[in-house]
Design a protein that fits this description.
single chain, alpha/beta, FAD/NAD(P)-binding domain, D-Amino Acid Oxidase, Chain A, domain 2, nine-stranded mixed beta sheet, six-stranded mixed beta sheet
C-alpha cells in the first residue's frame, strides 16, 4: 500500500481541486470518492485521523432492520446496500455477526410480529448476498424458542420470555486497520492526507473560495493552500467552522448528542451480539457486541451543550448506564472497576434530542454564502461512503470514475498488524509496528497505539508496552513521559467514575 507522506513544504506550491477539512470517516470517504474520480484533493485534520467520534464507534456495520419499525424503507435499503459494500470490499476486516433479541410478548416485541418483521427484512434485502463469497453471506432471520434462547445466552432474563429474534449484521474487529485501508486506498489513487494541520479560515474573494489558511501544529508554520472548492467535514465542529467563514447553519448540528460505548473487563455474554432493552421506565435498547470475545456495550446518549474536545461522559451518565445494564441482565453484577474503556463522541441531534435521521449538507453558494464552499455533518458510520459519493457527485458532476474492484485491488502490505485482545507485543509485532510508524504518518505514541492499531483497546497493554514502543520513536526520547501522559489521558480522561 502507498506510503502516507506528510510533505508540508509541498503544500505552498500546489493547487488542489478540492480541500477536505476534517479527518473522520466522512472526510476519509470524501477523499476516497474524489480520488476515485481523479480529483486532486487534500484532507487536512487538526489532530490525528479519526481521533474523535469515528474512532469511538461500536465496531458494527448495521443493516436496516431497525428502520422497518418506522417504515423508513429508503434508510433501510441504504443501510443494507452499504453493509454489503463493506463486506465485499473490506472483507479482511468485516464479518457476518449473529444477533439475538429476547422477546417478552409485550408491544411489538412478540414472536408473531418479529416473524413477520424478519421475513420482510429478508425479502426487502434479497440482494444482500449477491456476489459475496460464502463466508460473507448473511443467512435469513428467524424466531427461536425460549429454551433455545437460554442455550445461546446463559444469563438471559427468563421471566416472561417467549422466545428471541435472530438475524445477522456485520461486525468489525480491527477497526483501526479498516480505517487505514480506506486512507491507503485513497492515497494510492492520488489523494493527500495531512494530520496535525489546523485550518483557521477559508479564504474568500469576491464571494468565491480560493483556498484556506492554516497552521502546521508540528512546526508552527502558518501557510495558505490554494483550491477553488472546500468541504467542511469537521464533525461536531462543522457548524462552528461554517459560521466562522460564512454564517450559522443550525441544520448542520441542531443539538449535540453525546454517545458512548463501554468496554468491560469481562468475557462476552454470548457469541451472538445481543439487543437488550430496559423493561421499566424509559425504554432504551443496548447492543452487546462480543468484540474479540469481550463485553462491549452501547450506546448511551445524552444531549449536551458544551462539546469540548473529549466528549466527556459524566459520572452520573456512567451510573445510569450501568444501572440499566445490571437491571437488564440478572446476575451480571457489573461494577465501575470492570470498566476498561469508555468510547465517546458527538453526533447531531434533532430539536427533540434524538439522533438526526439524515446528514446535514450545505451548498454555501445556494444559501447566500461563498461559491465553492460546502459543509457536511454525518450521522452513521455505515452510510458514510454513500453520503460522500452523493456530495462528490453533486460538486463534480460528469467525472469518470474507477470501479471499486479496481480501487480495492491493491493488496495489503506487510504493514498489517492485528491483535488478539490479550496478545502481547513480541519482537515480530515490533518489526511490523516499525513499518507502520514509518509509512502511516505516525507522530505520537497514541497515534500508533490507538489509531493505527488496536493496542489501546486493551488499555493495560498499551500503558505497559509504552517503554517497549519507545524504540520506534527515536526523535521523542526527551519527551517520552509526555507521550505516556497523553496516552493515559486519552484512555482515561474522557469519563469519570
Amino acid at each position: 500500500m502507498e506510503k502516507i507522506h506528510r510533505n508540508i513544504s509541498d503544500l505552498k506550491k500546489s493547487e488542489y481541486e478540492l480541500i477536505i477539512i476534517g479527518g473522520g470517516i466522512y472526510g476519509t470517504m470524501l477523499s476516497l470518492e474524489a480520488a476515485r474520480r481523479g480529483i486532486k484533493s487534500i484532507l487536512l485534520e487538526k489532530d490525528d485521523f479519526s481521533s474523535k467520534t469515528t474512532l469511538n464507534n461500536l465496531r458494527t456495520v448495521h443493516g436496516g432492520l431497525r428502520y422497518l419499525q418506522s417504515a423508513d424503507i429508503i434508510r433501510f435499503k441504504e443501510s443494507v446496500k452499504e453493509r454489503k459494500w463493506f463486506l465485499k470490499y473490506l472483507p479482511e476486516y468485516v464479518n457476518p455477526m449473529p444477533c439475538l433479541m429476547p422477546l417478552y410478548g409485550k408491544g411489538v416485541y412478540r414472536n408473531s410480529i418479529f416473524r413477520i418483521a424478519l421475513t420482510i427484512n429478508d425479502v426487502l434485502s434479497f440482494y444482500r448476498n449477491k456476489n459475496l463469497p460464502e463466508s460473507k453471506k448473511l443467512p435469513n432471520g428467524k424466531v427461536i424458542t425460549a429454551k433455545e434462547s437460554a442455550e445461546i445466552f446463559k444469563l438471559i432474563d427468563k421471566k416472561g420470555l417467549k422466545g428471541s429474534a435472530c438475524w445477522y449484521d456485520a461486525g468489525v474487529e480491527e477497526f483501526q486497520r479498516l480505517n487505514m485501508k480506506l486512507i491507503h486506498t485513497a492515497v494510492s489513487t492520488g489523494a493527500e492526507f495531512i494530520n496535525y494541520f489546523e485550518v483557521q479560515d477559508v479564504l474568500v474573494k469576491n464571494k468565491k473560495v480560493f483556498g484556506i489558511i492554516g497552521t502546521d501544529k508540528l512546526s508552527g508554520e502558518t501557510l495558505k493552500i490554494k483550491s477553488k472548492k472546500i468541504i467542511n467535514a469537521a464533525g461536531p465542529w462543522s457548524r462552528i467552522f461554517a459560521e466562522g467563514f460564512d454564517k450559522d447553519y443550525p441544520g448542520l448540528f441542531k443539538k449535540n448528542l453525546l454517545l458512548w460505548n463501554i468496554l468491560f473487563d469481562r468475557e462476552a455474554l454470548s457469541e451472538y451480539a445481543l439487543g437488550l432493552s430496559t423493561r421499566k421506565g424509559k425504554k432504551h435498547t443496548y447492543f452487546f457486541h462480543p468484540w474479540k470475545g469481550r463485553l462491549l456495550i452501547g450506546t448511551g446518549e445524552k444531549i449536551v451543550d458544551n462539546i469540548g474536545d473529549k466528549a466527556f461522559v459524566k459520572k452520573e451518565f456512567i451510573e445510569e448506564f450501568m444501572n440499566d445494564i445490571n437491571s437488564i441482565v440478572p446476575g451480571i453484577s457489573l461494577k465501575k472497576s470492570d470498566i476498561l474503556r469508555v468510547y465517546s463522541g458527538i453526533l447531531p441531534a434533532t430539536d427533540k434530542g434524538t439522533l438526526a435521521k439524515r446528514p446535514g449538507m450545505i451548498d454555501h453558494w445556494k444559501a447566500g454564502g461563498p461559491a465553492g464552499a460546502y459543509s457536511i455533518s454525518g450521522v452513521k458510520f455505515t452510510t458514510s461512503r454513500l453520503v460522500a459519493e452523493k456530495m462528490i457527485k453533486y460538486i463534480f458532476s460528469n467525472r469518470k470514475k474507477k470501479s471499486y474492484k479496481e480501487l480495492f485491488g491493491i493488496k495489503n502490505s506487510d504493514n498489517e498488524v492485528f491483535f488478539e485482545y490479550n496478545e502481547k507485543i513480541d519482537k515480530r509485532k515490533l518489526e511490523v509496528l516499525k513499518k507502520v510508524v514509518n509509512n502511516e504518518s505516525v507522530i505520537h505514541l497514541s497515534d500508533l497505539a490507538s489509531r493505527r492499531t488496536s493496542i489501546s483497546d486493551n488499555p493495560k497493554r498499551a500503558v505497559n508496552a509504552a517503554d517497549e514502543l519507545k524504540k520506534l520513536f527515536p526523535g521523542l526520547e526527551d519527551g517520552w513521559n509526555d507521550e505516556i501522559l497523553s496516552l493515559k489521558d486519552e484512555l482515561y480522561g474522557n469519563y469519570e467514575v
